[in-house]
Structures are given as structure tokens and as C-alpha cells.
Amino acid sequence: MPENVANTDQLIRHNWTQQQVEALYDLAFADLMYRAQTAHRENFNPNEVQISTLLSIKTGGCAEDCGYCPQSAHHESAVKAEPLMPLDKVLESAAQAKATGASRFCMGAAWRNLKDRDLERVADMVSGVKDMGLETCVTLGMLEQHQAKRLKQAGLDYYNHNLDTSPEFYGDIISTRTYQDRLDTLAHVRANDIHVCSGGIVGMGESRQDRAGLLISLANLPSHPESVPINLLVKVEGTPLANHDNIDQLEFVRTIAVARLMMPKSYVRLSAGRESMSDELQAMCFLAGANSIFYGEKLLTTDNPDTDHDQQLFERLGITTLAGQHTADVKEACHH
Ligand code: SAM
Ligand code: DTB
Ligand code: SF4
């Protein structure tokens, strides 16, 4: 085993170098999988997966120009802009998610940033969902300190805000906000004691160095995000990335495995893109250390696998789903 990758994966580290992470990526596939599965077993029950259900509470018409996103007003996708959903509809959808077995309910808005005029309505959604006994998560774009504080007070457990890719590749995908803006939002979330959910997208034409760079940006944060969504680009017609070549599927599995090794106590979520994956590829991702998914027939605007299909897959793999309260334990584990 190369010296620079030995014994580095068992500790919570925040000082990963590009060379070390690329060395993990360069391991023989079986060696990488063995190490990732070993780290996974040291920290989690390998047959348990956490499930979150997503709801788009405010769809389309977004001012940002994220190249992958069908909700950007800069692109001509089929998504129609809709106003912020009323509270009763949100709670209805959360009740449904709970009935299907989700432990967390994640509400997403196509906003560049949360506006104070919408803060109380979102806070009501958070407390309503929390009162139903679900873990709460929102993703609303950039967030300021006082807004994070108010959402925490309303009962917010997780805030999702992705770094998306490496700092170097970022400018090829998004021009309307900076990497530093994203880091600032994550700091506001953390400072208010809300769990951080942050990851990125693979398959946007980035290099392996960029994939390593994304994982370094995440793992070298002062605390590892408790939840790390790894999205496979969903190619949506009308977006600039619609006709991109597919990424090698084994490279996607490697990315999950390297994320597991670098952030051994975090939940790694096999996120968008499962609709285009075979059952066998998803099984390999679980073997590589993914232990969370989005569950429910829609992501925000695009399709996710049918719940029946997911249940069958879990049954075939002997996977059980995790009840919400257990995930709170991860918080302490990630703070070092
Ligand atoms: N507007 C907010 C923001 O961007 O911060 C929250 C919602 S946004 C849709 C949440 C995340 O979804 C993005 O950061 C991106 O990582 C992911 N995403 C969006 N479109 C995607 C696509 N076509 N394929 C994969 N992931 C996507
Ligand atoms: C995340 O990392 N992936 C989710 C969630 N966080 C909000 C969103 C995926 C969106 C996929 C494209 C769509 O459905 O619009
Ligand atoms: Fe807007 Fe979020 Fe889509 Fe970017 S990813 S265009 S911020 S909805």
C-alpha cells in the first residue's frame, strides 16, 4: 500500500491534501472498496440506510444560473415557476412521507437566498413538520445568521447547501454566486447548531482532480457535514449540461468510497441520479459506504425511483431503514 494513504482513513481529519485524495482514487478498485467497507462497518450498521423525502416548496424561476439546474430562469427547461406552497399542502405531503417510512422531510426552494419576508412562512413549515415527529431539513439558497437562528428556533435539524464541485471547476458551472458565498452560508448554519448537509454533483464534465477537490473542500471544513449528498448529474433538457457525456459508473462508485473514507462518521447520501442507475450499481454504492437516499417518486422537479422498486431493492439487499432519532447521534461524532 502506498505510504501516503496508509492509516489515514480511520481518523476524523481536516487536513487532506490533493495528493492523498488522488492516491485513494488511484487504489485498485477492490482495495478501495475493501477499505471503504471496513471504515463503514467501524462506524455504522452496513445494512441500514437512512431515508429522506424531498418536496419542492417553491419551484422554478430562480435567479441563479447553475448550469445543471432545470429551475434556473436562465435556462429554457420545461419547469414552470410556482409560488411558495401553502402550509397545509406542505404538511399534507410530510404526513404522506411519514406514512411511507421516511425519517426526514427536506423542503427545497428555488431561491438564490432566503428573504426575510418568507422567513416566518418557512419557519411555520419547519415547526409543523417537526411536530409530526419527522426530522426537518430545508434548502433555501444562501442564509444569513439571524435567519439560521430563527430556523433553529423553529425546530430545524438540517440545512442542505452544496458546494457542488471543486473551487477550480466551480466557475465553469455557476457565475452568479461564489464558492465563498457557499462557505459563508455553511458557517452560518454551523454557528447556529444546525446539522450541515453538504455535498456536490458528479458527472458535469469535471476531472478526477475536481472530484477530489470537492471532497477536500467538504472534509477540510472545521467539522465534517453530518450528511454528504453525492448527486449524479440528472441531465435535463434545456439546461447547458443536458447533452454531457456520461461519467464512468465505476468512477462514481469510487467517489462514494473516497467520501466514505474521508468522512467516516458522516451519512453519505446516494442522491440525485438513482433513476438512471441499475440496481446493481446502487448495490455497489451501498457497498462503497453510501447509507442514505432520497425516497419518494420525485426529487425536486425530476423523477426518482418508485417507492415499490426501492422497497424491493432493499429487500433483495437485506437493507433496513433507519428511524429518525438515531441520526442525531452522528452530530457529536463529527465534531472534532
Ligand atoms: N436553490 C437552493 C440552492 O441551490 O442552494 C436549493 C435547491 S438546489 C436545487 C439543491 C441542489 O440540488 C443543488 O445544489 C445541486 O447540487 C442539486 N441539483 C440541482 N439540479 C441537479 C441536477 N440536474 N442533477 C443533480 N443534482 C442537481
Ligand atoms: C441534494 O443534494 N440533492 C437534492 C437535494 N439536495 C435538495 C436535489 C436534487 C435535485 C435534482 C434535480 C431536480 O429534481 O430538480
Ligand atoms: Fe437556483 Fe438552486 Fe437551481 Fe441554482 S441549484 S438555479 S440556486 S434552484
Q: What is the mean predicted local confidence, pLDDT?
A: 92
* Main sheet properties: 10 strands, parallel
Number of helices: 13
Low-confidence parts: 1-9, 325-336
Give the topology string: H per helix, E per strand: HHEHEHEHEHHEEHEHEHEHEHH
The 3D shape can be described as globular
Broad structural category: alpha/beta
Task: Give the helix level as a range of percent.
Answer: 40-55%
Our measurement of the CA-to-CA distance between the termini, rounded to an integer number of angstroms, reads: 27 Å
Proportion of residues in β-strands: 5-15%
The unique ligands bound to this protein are: S-adenosylmethionine, 6-(5-methyl-2-OXO-imidazolidin-4-yl)-hexanoic acid, iron/sulfur cluster
Provide tags for this entry:
alpha/beta, ten-stranded parallel sheet, binds iron/sulfur cluster, globular, binds S-adenosylmethionine, 10 strands
Describe the protein's architecture and organization.
Helix 9 links the parallel strand 7 and strand 8. The protein is of the alpha/beta class. The chain has 13 helices and ten strands. Helix 8 runs parallel beside helix 9. The structure holds S-adenosylmethionine, 6-(5-methyl-2-OXO-imidazolidin-4-yl)-hexanoic acid (DTB) and iron/sulfur cluster (SF4).
